[in-house]
């Protein structure tokens, strides 16, 4: 089966049922008809299977129309981060060579001059006048459904080719393991240009047949009212969302928690302290999981069972995980830190037109994630940051997340990031960048009481905020330079 077959569980089986809250309530039948009309528009504009279509839009109805139309036509959907600008967009356009890039009147100014540009408003108006003719041209689950570009926080972003099968396997795993059904009410405020919103949110919504409230973006001052009004049972978020939700009124938090069935967190590490604070305020233990653009979801804390603070849980069905020495490729025993390798039907086959990058990413069929982690004796996995973030100081390995978690437990600290800076004697040393009201001397004393001397940050740099991607990942290469005091 391809994605249109699975989506038909709702489009054909639940046509008259409420599906989407946007500017009004839409039924599954209405969403299906919109997708059919949009598919006809794309066909009339000459798109054919294998063509790429870039979409540079915020969350909106047209976004859904275009994605669903592409899945039916075999057109490869290329989501573009709405925060990207000329240079970043130009790279994706050059690499993917799309038939067109779709945007709106507000964002067209950021599209490089000369790019084949279609306005979403024009496509929607054209679709309004179309007959509702259903066309499905893709019947191979291995056909590419989307080309998703990595965040590119340490280099040029690469396009991960994701097939219909990968999206399907991911969604079916989540429906089973997180017990998502047609009775759920999903509030989705994640950007659809990322696999967290698109791969998890949209696919779980359509295949389960649940009811979804879609927001253009997460606005923490409005989100409490959304939740109190819509009363969701399911919410997918990132750590920064949960941190802001802790600012809500305690009575609202209790009422939201009473209606909620499951809070899920991913896309960036969730501090154990945030999980504990959230549990105390909302009376829910956030379920943390681990995924990537190249693989969708890999590991998850259990729905029924211990949701362990600081851990991403257990491998999902069909996903195999190894912890290996990054140089010798030997399997490491439980409790030792190594690189996380993955294998399974959720893993992509390679990067778009990047044979060398694809070859470097795989060893004997195992995908090298670049993430560091360890496995506990009872099978739970804990991530310890990116391999590229590892600090080697005087021959000793320092895992920044260990220090970051500790700093977040200290009074006055709201955010923290630890990065390595060059040092003539030790190669590199750790430096902490901290958001909040704090005393650097007090933080240093606390660290000295809890860590080996080589792990003590050489500086505690106050910053107003940490540079992050749209999904909350810290961009350490954008942190300000640090120099030791003379």
Topology diagram in text:
Layout: H1 3-11, E1 18-21, E2 25-27, H2 28-44, E3 52-55, H3 61-73, E4 76-79, H4 86-96, E5 100-103, E6 117-119, H5 120-128, E7 144-149, E8 159-163, H6 164-177, E9 185-188, H7 195-208, E10 211-214, H8 220-230, E11 234-237, H9 239-245, H10 250-259, E12 262-265, H11 272-282, E13 287-292, E14 296-300, E15 314-315, E16 319-324, E17 338-344, H12 355-361, E18 362-363, E19 366-375, E20 381-386, E21 391-393, E22 396-398, H13 400-408, E23 413-423, E24 427-436, H14 440-450, E25 460-462
Parallel strand pairs: 1-10, 3-4, 3-5, 5-6, 9-10, 9-11, 11-12, 12-13, 24-25
Antiparallel strand pairs: 1-2, 7-8, 13-14, 14-15, 16-17, 17-19, 18-19, 19-20, 21-22, 23-24
Helix pairs in contact: 1-7, 2-3, 2-5, 6-7
Task: Give the gist of this structure.
By secondary structure, the protein is of the alpha/beta class.
Number of spatially distinct domains: 3
Distance between the termini: 66 Å
Report the C-alpha radius of gyration, rounded.
Answer: 23 Å
Q: Helix/strand/pairing class, anyone?
A: alpha/beta
How much of the polypeptide forms β-strand, as a percent range? 25-35%
Unreliable residue runs: none
Helical content class: 25-40%
**Name of the CATH homologous superfamily of the largest domain:** ANL, N-terminal domain
Largest sheet: 9 strands, mixed
Strand order of the largest sheet: 2-1-10-9-11-12-13-14-15
Which CATH architecture of the largest domain would you pick?
3-Layer(aba) Sandwich
CATH top-level class of the largest domain: Alpha Beta
